[in-house]
Design goal:
This protein is mostly beta strands and about 140 residues long. The chain has a single domain, classed as OB fold (Dihydrolipoamide Acetyltransferase, E2P). Helices cover about 5% and strands about 50% of the residues. It contains two helices and eleven strands. The chain has a six-stranded mixed sheet with strand order 8-1-2-11-10-9, with no helix packed on it. Strand 1 and strand 2 form a beta hairpin. The longest helix has 4 residues. It is globular and about 45 Å long.
């Protein structure tokens, strides 16, 4: 059984494998830095560590401009040995799912390599997209 952290982003639910998650925290003060791409909000200090903070909705083009709503949570992920913080709206739960219960999504050959979600789970009528490796690039 694989465990996942479920989170809400722009009114859609996603799941990330728990082994990629270092910690979840309330959003702290973010220090902006000049000349960064718009999806990189800046850095924060979390338990003595400097963490770059990414507005994942902008990065994934779920939104095309900065939101006036402040994201409440940061998911700190280990991405290729580097800690990166993703701003998300809400942390939902940690759940365990069997691989056999996941639904594969057929995007077709043209979109398969670009898809952020390759598999999904339906829980209580809600579609939860499980993030593919593309989501972490």
């Amino acid at each position: 059984m694989q465990q996942y952290l479920i989170f809400n982003l722009e009114q859609q639910f996603y799941a990330v494998e728990i082994n990629k998650v270092k910690e979840v925290a309330k959003t702290h003060q973010i220090t902006t830095l000049p000349h960064l791409p718009k999806e990189i909000k800046g850095i924060t200090i979390l338990r003595g560590r400097t963490i770059p903070i990414i507005d994942i909705a902008l990065k994934w083009k779920k939104r095309h401009r900065d939101s006036l709503v402040i994201k409440e949570y940061v998911i700190v992920l280990d991405i290729d040995g580097e800690e990166v913080g993703w701003l998300v709206d809400e942390i939902i739960d940690i759940v365990g799912w069997e691989t056999k219960d996941l639904k594969r999504i057929d995007w077709g050959e043209d979109l398969k390599e670009q898809a952020l979600v390759q598999t999904a789970f339906i829980q209580e009528g809600q579609f939860i997209g499980i993030l593919s490796e593309k989501a972490f690039q």
